[in-house]
Amino acid sequence: MVLRLAILILLLGLTVPVSGETLNSCLECHSRVVLSHDFVTDSPIALMDCVGCHRGNPQTRRKDLAHSQRTDADYAWFRLVDTPIMNAARQSIDRFACRRCHVQNRKGNTLAADLDQLLAQRSVDELIQALLEPAYYMPDFALGEKDRQLVILALLAGGVNPLEQDSDDVTIVHFENPASEEHPFEKHCGACHRVLTPHLGGLGTDTIAPNLSGLLTPFYLKNFKDNQLWTADGLTRWIKNPRQIRPLAVMPPLDLNDQQIHKLIDNTWPATQGELHP
């Protein structure tokens, strides 16, 4: 009986951790890889802490469980914040204005899901798929492989130190309201634009013009004029005569008086467009 038990232990390759140590089965298969990590010798992350960068489950020898939500080498940089690739990743979040709708790295609007929760909830493959097939009110950025990698690296990095959630995930609801003065966005804008709002859900039905979610917040693209942010005053001027702001603008002027414009802005982009994180 003792002999059978000894053979079984050898076959399974089991090792008993020394008291106080945590089993790290990663090193049983990947020890040579760990020894080759010379490019991160100055990292504050211990090289023996495999899951710090690669995720997975180090306390099992079953490959399918050990590799659960595993992060490949291309995406394992998210913990190494002071590297050129992570600097580029952070810039990509601003370039694509992800925070116009989302909280990312503890900053942004809460019009859509908190991206800092994705590290604990989603695999890299799921994040790639979400960017390839965007949700209904998410702009289709048509990202190339390199830009997808940068965005995902930033998303993973933001999840290292997320804000504590004090509410449920945002649920996007879309109602096709009648195009009337009671629903000014649908009447004047929704045939070309879409927008997420904190109080009315998703508005608009088409994507031939830019997504206007979070337009009057610091997180929208700085593309009003001369790399300036959009303001209520600037938007009013744009609505009255877009080509006065941008001579080659495709959008025609809207025949609205000041009262109608103010109602459109207040109805669609209220002062608090979702709780704003500084």
From TrEMBL:
UniProt entry keywords in alphabetical sequence? Heme, Iron, Metal-binding
Q: InterPro entries per the record?
A: Cyt_c-like_dom, Cyt_c-like_dom_sf, Multihaem_cyt_sf
| Superkingdom of the source species | Bacteria
Gene Ontology MF: a single term: electron transfer activity
Asked whether the UniProt record includes Oxidoreductase among its keywords, one would answer: no
Keyword Lipid biosynthesis annotated: no
Cytochrome c domain: which residues?
A: 176-278
Q: What is the recorded name of this protein?
A: Cytochrome c domain-containing protein
- Which organism is this protein's natural source? Desulfuromonas acetoxidans (strain DSM 684 / 11070)
